[in-house]
Amino acid sequence: MNPISRSTEYAVRALTYLAQQRGDGRYHLAREMADKLGIPAPFLGKILQPLVTREVLESQRGRNGGFRLALEPKDVPLARIAESQETNRGPRGCLLGQAECSDERACPMHEYWKVAADAFEAKMEKTTLADLVAFCENKPQSGYPCGTPEPGKVSVF
Predict the structure, then answer these.
(1) Interval 84-124: pLDDT, tens
(2) Could you tell me the CATH number of the domain that includes residue 55?
(3) Which alpha helices (DSSP H) does the chain contain, by range?
C-alpha cells in the first residue's frame, strides 16, 4: 500500500531532478524530464502545473522554455509537493477498508495505522528536496530519481 499517489511520486521525482539541475539556471522541458525519469510526458506536464500555480516552479513558454525550481531546494518540503497533487484526497482511509474508522469506531489496525500515518506525514513535512539531493549525492548507485543505472554504470545525468 503506497501512502502517496502516483502523481505525488512523479512530482517528487521530477522536482528532485530539477533540484539536481538547479545550478545550470536553465528551464527543462517536461518531455525531456519525462524521458529521463520514465514518466509519461503528458502526465508529467499536468503534474507540474499545480506546482507553478503554488509558486514552487517557474515555467516559461517558447524557445528555451520549460520548468525550473522557483525556490531553494531546502525550502521545499515533500509535504508541499504532495499537497499540490492530493487536492481531492479526503480524510485518511481505513487500512482494512471499513466505511467508518475513527477513534470511536476503530478497526483492529486503527491505532497502528494512526501512529504510522502521523509519523509519515511528519517525515514529509521535515524532509526537503535538499535532503533528497543529498541522498542522491551520497548514494549514486541508487539511481534515484531516474531509476536503477545499468550494472557497472552510475547515472550522473
Answers:
(1) 997 655 556 787 888 888 899 999 999 998 899 899 999 99
(2) 1.10.10.10
(3) 6-20, 30-37, 41-53, 78-85, 110-126, 129-138
